[in-house]
UniProtKB/TrEMBL annotation:
Protein name: Pyridoxine/pyridoxamine 5'-phosphate oxidase
PANTHER family: PYRIDOXINE-5'-PHOSPHATE OXIDASE, PYRIDOXINE-5-PHOSPHATE OXIDASE
Lineage of the species this protein comes from: Bacteria, Pseudomonadati, Pseudomonadota, Gammaproteobacteria, Moraxellales
InterPro entries: Pyridox_Oxase, Pyridox_Oxase_CS, Pyridox_Oxase_N, Pyridoxamine_oxidase_dimer_C, Split_barrel_FMN-bd
Keywords recorded for this protein, A-Z: Flavoprotein, FMN, Oxidoreductase, Pyridoxine biosynthesis
Pfam families referenced in this protein's UniProt entry, alphabetically: PNP_phzG_C, PNPOx_N
Entry superkingdom: Bacteria
Broad enzyme group: oxidoreductase
Cofactor, how bound (note): Binds 1 FMN per subunit.
NCBIfam families: pdxH (TIGR00558), PRK05679.1 (NF004231)
């Protein structure tokens, strides 16, 4: 099967972005754009693509859910022994991307990534629904191969038996949060005629002030 989309094109006309009027901090603009996405009822606007690249030099990308915007960047939770966890252990640099079609907007955030404090991970794990907690134990190691679905379901049932509803499920050591600390944040607003607005914020780890620039679309 082949597919041809060469005649498909949309004109993006929903907004604009001026370098002179953007806030000093990219997190303020991120917050404003996130608020717009919530108002426009973008489904799961906190879902983001996470790109990593391990020692094999092969990039890898998948969706994860942003759980927090901190003063430094974004936090998400996962299995530390997953494929992404291995990539991050090899190379602690990553990029996340949000795309909100309803707003014709894209945001890219890249920088250094590190595990968050184990106590904070445990506090979040303990807030999750009981069956999601059990699911985290089933998916170990996440990204490992499994013979079939029945194997997963049998593990799920056995763990539900071990930890019945209402009982505490221990926080797995192999599970927790990562914080991606922003060093570069790019905002993209679609415009007509492919004359899109791109404003990038950059900062070295040592610097406190952000520098902005307009990029060619
Ligand atoms: C909407 C959506 C949300 C997801 N959220 C997460 C998440 O927060 N954490 C996570 O580990 N995986 C999440 N996943 C699954 C990942 O995309 C991926 O399949 C999994 O983490 C294994 O990735 P890896 O093999 O690259 O480590 C989500 C997938 C989708 C489609």
């Amino acid at each position: 099967m082949s597919l041809d989309f060469t005649e498909q094109r949309l004109s993006y006309e929903k907004g604009s972005l001026e370098q002179q009027s953007v806030p000093q901090s990219p997190f303020v603009l991120f917050g404003q754009w996130m608020q717009d996405a919530i108002e426009q009822q973008v489904p799961e606007p906190y879902a983001m693509s996470l790109a990593t690249c391990g020692a094999d030099n092969k990039p890898s990308v998948r969706i994860v859910l942003m759980r927090e915007l901190t003063e430094s960047g974004v936090v998400f939770y996962t299995n530390y022994e997953s494929a992404k966890g291995q990539d991050i252990a090899d190379n602690p640099q990553a990029e996340v991307l949000f795309f909100w079609h309803a707003l014709e907007r894209q945001i890219r955030i890249s920088g250094h990534i590190h595990k968050i404090d184990a106590q904070k991970s445990a506090a979040y794990f303990q807030k999750r629904p009981h069956d999601s907690q059990v699911g985290a134990w089933v998916s170990q190691p996440q990204s490992g191969e499994v013979d079939n679905r029945e194997v997963m379901e049998a593990r799920f049932e056995a763990l539900q038996h071990q930890y019945p509803e209402g009982s505490a499920v221990p926080t797995p050591e192999f599970w927790g949060g990562y914080e991606l600390c922003a060093e570069r944040v790019e905002f993209w607003q679609g415009r007509a005629n492919r004359m899109h607005d791109r404003i990038v914020y950059t900062k070295d780890n040592a610097q406190t002030d952000w520098h902005t620039a307009r990029l060619l679309p």
